[in-house]
Amino acid sequence: MPSTDPGPGPDHALADAASRLRDEGASLRARIVQMQEDMRVVIESSRDSNADDEHDPEGQTIAFERSQLAAMTNQARAHLRDVDAALERLADGTYGVCEVCGQPIPAGRLEARPTARTCVQHVRPSAP
């Protein structure tokens, strides 16, 4: 059953969404820079060691830390792409319109998930 909740609505709602998305984008950019610096520090500190990851008692911990930082950085970059895409949709007037059916995305969904591209009916399940 389709939702009766209208899409993003008046200009003030769109301005609020734009402000939230810009703030989130700035926060993500800062977080990515910090994680890149953290990765540089981890790599530099492991270079100072003569042991390799396999034989160094701390090697597995360092490898795990690098892996975690890389995964978190990639996740932040993906979310930043979503935020930037939402800002583009705001600029071109398609924000709040389902990319599948062309119907308005309910305002509640956009409030909870400002980067939403589809209405709830057309959300694709996440990969396992």
Question: Would you give an account of this structure?
Answer:
A zinc finger (dksA C4-type) spans 98-122. Residues 93-120 form the Zinc finger DksA/TraR C4-type domain. Keywords: Metal-binding, Zinc, Zinc-finger. With 128 residues, the protein is mostly helical. The protein has a single domain (11-122), classed as Four Helix Bundle (Hemerythrin (Met), subunit A) (Up-down Bundle), CATH 1.20.120.910. It is built from three helices and no strands. The relative contact order is 0.18.
Key words describing this protein structure:
mainly alpha
SSE arrangement:
Elements: H1 11-47, H2 59-92, H3 107-112
Helix pairs in contact: 1-2
Distance between the termini: 27 Å
Q: Which residues sit in consecutive blocks of at least 5 with pLDDT less than 50?
A: 1-5
CATH H-tier superfamily: DksA, coiled-coil domain
Q: Can you tell me the overall shape?
A: elongated
Q: From the alpha-carbon coordinates, what is the Rg to the nearest angstrom?
A: 20 Å
Q: Which topology does CATH recognise? A: Four Helix Bundle (Hemerythrin (Met), subunit A)
How much helix, percentage-wise, in residues?
55-70%
Helical stretch tally:
3
Strand runs, count = 0
What are the secondary-structure elements, in order, as H or E?
Answer: HHH
Tally of discrete structural domains: 1
| Largest sheet features | none
Briefly say what this structure is.
It comes from Ornithinimicrobium cerasi. The chain is an all-alpha fold and 128 residues long.
